[in-house]
User: What shape does this take?
Amino acid sequence: MRREALTFALRGPRLAAALILAALSLAAPFLFPAITVQLALLWIMVVFAMTWDTTGGQMGYNSFGNVLFVGLGMYACAVVQRDFGLGYFWTLAAGLAVGALIAVTVGAVLGAGMLGLRGHYFAIGTLGLGIAAGEIASSWEYVGAGGGLTVPIYPGDIAFRTGFFYYQCLMLALATFLALRWLYGTRFGLALNAIRDDEDKAEAMGLHTTRYKTVAWCTAAFFLSIAGGILGNIIGFIDPRDTAFASSSYGIWMVLMAILGGKGTLWGPVVGAVIFHLTQELFWTYLLGWQRVALGLLIVLIVVFFPQGIFGWVRARWPERFGATVEKPAGTKSA
Amino acid sequence: MSRILEVEGVSKSFGGVVANRDISLNVAAGEIVGLIGPNGSGKTTLFNSIVGYHPIDSGSIRFESREISRLRVPQIARLGLLRTFQQTRVYKGMSCLENMLISTSHSGATLRGMLAGVPREIEERAEEILEFVGLYPKRRLAASDLSFGQQKLLEFGMALMNEPKMLLLDEPTAGINPTLINGLIDRLRRANAQLGITLLVIEHNMRVIMNLAQRLYCLAHGELLAEGTPGELQRDRRVLDAYLGAH
Assistant: This one.
């Protein structure tokens, strides 16, 4: 079954690859101390791409407003950290939890209205969400308005600080991956795919489409808000339009990363995020001054030549590798 | 026999166009009833009204004595009244087996139940039905890789997977090659006889519907023109005129 083929049973070479990857991820702050922050951001990007794909790829609802949840998590976490003195680590944990709660609630409330929109209308409607939230935040004194908000500083050694947040990002990315992997393997995952392929048919078959769509979006909101909370702490300063509700950077990147890797696949967004983040960092390092042009060119190339993404292309090229086979002796059961 | 579906005085217009005017029909549990009429006579509109695709202007629709004309599509489907589409609709990006697995009845489906894996017995039933419609060897192919006729069979299989009480079939044989048509008629009959599914079928192929249906309703220009057994309707002057254009 395609589903099994995509969720990869951990055996043999795959187990070895997974172990090497795990060891590398765990040792990264010691192996590459100079770029630990970039690597932490890489895991954040993985979370961005994977959660975007839950609605965009698996369910077929292209959201340009998921950055809303990033910003909500970021602000909520920072405000809790600023206003409640329970000691740094407890307030950080509380802040992430409060951010998640707010983001999921907002996702559920907005979802009831927004998820009734189909196709392009949903995309455009969600695009407005991130922008509107940015405008509201930049005029709301409580969260620092346009002047931004400074996140309380990590109390310990600066070297530990990067490592501390790196491991949080790593754990979050892993948790997101495992949660979504499990989710896509259930009947709920099938329901999301059914909604993507033909929502009218799904309704005609009696599926609780609204319920599934809302839960899917709230799942994305949950992980995104935590990513936002951590991201705010890594950057240390929250600008309403450029870091929190950054529609034109994070908001677009999450879409591109998922498309680059392959919409609607488990590993596609992960691979897409890694390649995108790597390329972007290289552009910044070696093409300074032209980095935005190069990034724009990359985006055009992705959309024109890889509309299905890397994993989508591989699957179309070798469908039998993903279990799409016809059995020759017709009518004989082997299972 | 008890009436499973009762349509009484249903009217539906789109702007100035009256698609259905004061239509009444009923189907008894276990029956196979046909709905015929020239193109544009309002058959599909009536189907859409019954399954809640759009609100009706007036009249009443009862399924198992329960008024359903104000319910929405998924709610009606969960009661066990299901329709298939004229333009076949399957989940094209999913494999045939996955198409079947998600098509089980959703009445009483809880979120927790949906977050569990697929129970083994459901997978077995899906495979049995795929065998029944002749798609078992292709169960791992994406539905988009099937031919049009095979997609119709898959859609029929998905409907059976749902274990409905009643099925509304919108032109089940349109676009299918003649050899497959015979197999499909046979399968429809068996679904009716063995699984007890009541059928209401829109069909243009007269050979098919005359063989399949026990009773027929004929629509023309949005109104109910005639009803009776296939034999009666074949001799009905009004029906012949409607089809030959004298009406």
